[in-house]
Amino acid sequence: MKGYLSSQKKVECFGCGACVQVCNQNALSMMEDDEGFVYPAFDAEKCCGCEACLRACPYGNELPREGAPIAVFGGHHKNASILEDSTSGGAFSALVEAWFLREGNRAVWGAASHGIDVRHECALNFEESVRFRKSKYCQSDMGSAYADIRLQLKAGTFVLFSGTPCQVAGLRSFLGPRAYGGRLLTVEVVCEGVPTPLYLRKYIERLESGHGSKLAELDYRYKDGRRWDFQVMLATFEDGQYCKVDRWFNPFWSIWLQHLMSRPSCYCCPFAAPDRIADVTLGDLWGVHLYCPDLYSRNAGASLVVCNTEAGVSLLNDARSFLEGRNLEFADARRYQGPMRRPVGEVLSREAFMHDLLTLDIDDLEKKWAKRPSLKLLWCKYIWGNRQKVALWNLRRALVSKVKKGGD
Ligand SMILES: Cc1cc2nc3c(=O)[nH]c(=O)nc-3n(C[C@H](O)[C@H](O)[C@H](O)COP(=O)(O)OP(=O)(O)OC[C@H]3O[C@@H](n4cnc5c(N)ncnc54)[C@H](O)[C@@H]3O)c2cc1C
């Protein structure tokens, strides 16, 4: 059988913890390695040799994938404050609201922040699900989520599970072939990988010592009043101070987006492909200013929603009353979504970066590895950027329609 438990190859473990949760002997537990990523550790004395852990591993388990998407939607939430509180266009909140409006006992699982730690938790109504909003760029701890979901499904609850594609695969693999009357619906985020928490801890420690206060909240992508594609990081401290950094001046974004510190399995992720593992795939509507500028929403954020199954389409249809937008062609959307085509692939300098992460002080590490923005990039972002291009496009469109009306 394939998978980390039999091969001990780190690229063969997504860190989902399905193996740990399936083991009724408590013979496995998740342990952090020296790079900060979690892997199952095995206690041979407790093992009864049933191999349930090997069968639950999504790496070894070739799960059926969905083929070409059935529907592709681009747009944003109609409610301005939900849109501001969401990473992309708030499509996740629209799906969740529609989910809870349906009949029957319902639950939603998602990733919630606890300082810089992230855990998968359950919400039993829309208000409780608000804590799942926003992308936390760190692998979330699944705890006992899969086992709890199995109990909920067996008890007749309808469950919407949201997470990264490998976490969805972990859940499906854990549950096995049983369909539970179609009560499970899965929503995955487009995912380019998860970074090591080791760097983030050092980064936050430095911020805390600079501000003389503990971190209260970290928003990786604060929109700062219609600056969605600026990926502003906002750190709020316990004493009320805060600090904001735009993406081009933020070493976290620079280092991570060079793919120097992702989990080993992310470089060859089998779920970074056009055929998806979940009912619905959510992402940023990257390229919006190029192929559908009418959905730009003045840089307040835009979502891509890809429905891979009929159940996904049905939920999107219910959620449409909360959303503004329209159908798109998958071929157009996919052009701007690398993780929906192929995984990142090997990054040769990762090993050297990881060595430096363990040995250098954070300032020296960043001096060596974080890129400074070029003047051209700063010009494009702050002076003549997407916002201005879309404004020009709108002006041109308004003029053309005026001229056409005048001619009628
Ligand atoms: C680690 C990560 C990498 C991503 N990479 C890309 C990318 O390369 N390209 C792209 O287009 N989009 C990416 N996304 C998705 C994007 O950032 C938004 O999450 C998505 O578009 C949904 O946004 P929203 O506005 O609809 O809702 P939001 O309310 O912002 O979305 C919240 C959703 O994200 C889930 N979530 C948040 N943090 C985590 C986490 N740590 N682990 C698992 N699930 C989490 C929540 O459970 C919920 O389902 C990534 C998200 C994450 C978490």
TrEMBL record:
Organism for this UniProt entry: Gordonibacter urolithinfaciens
Keyword Iron-sulfur: yes
Pfam family, one: FrhB_FdhB_C
Coiled coil regions, renumbered to chain: none
Domain 4Fe-4S ferredoxin-type positions: 3-33, 38-67
PROSITE patterns in the cross-refs: 4FE4S_FER_1, 4FE4S_FER_2
Keyword tags: Iron, Iron-sulfur, Metal-binding
GO MF term set: iron-sulfur cluster binding; metal ion binding
Source organism, top-level taxon: Bacteria
InterPro entries reported for this sequence: 4Fe4S_Fe-S-bd (IPR017896), 4Fe4S_Fe_S_CS (IPR017900), FrhB_FdhB_C (IPR007525), Polyferredoxin-like_ET (IPR052977)
Protein's UniProt name: 4Fe-4S dicluster domain-containing protein
Keyword Transmembrane helix: no
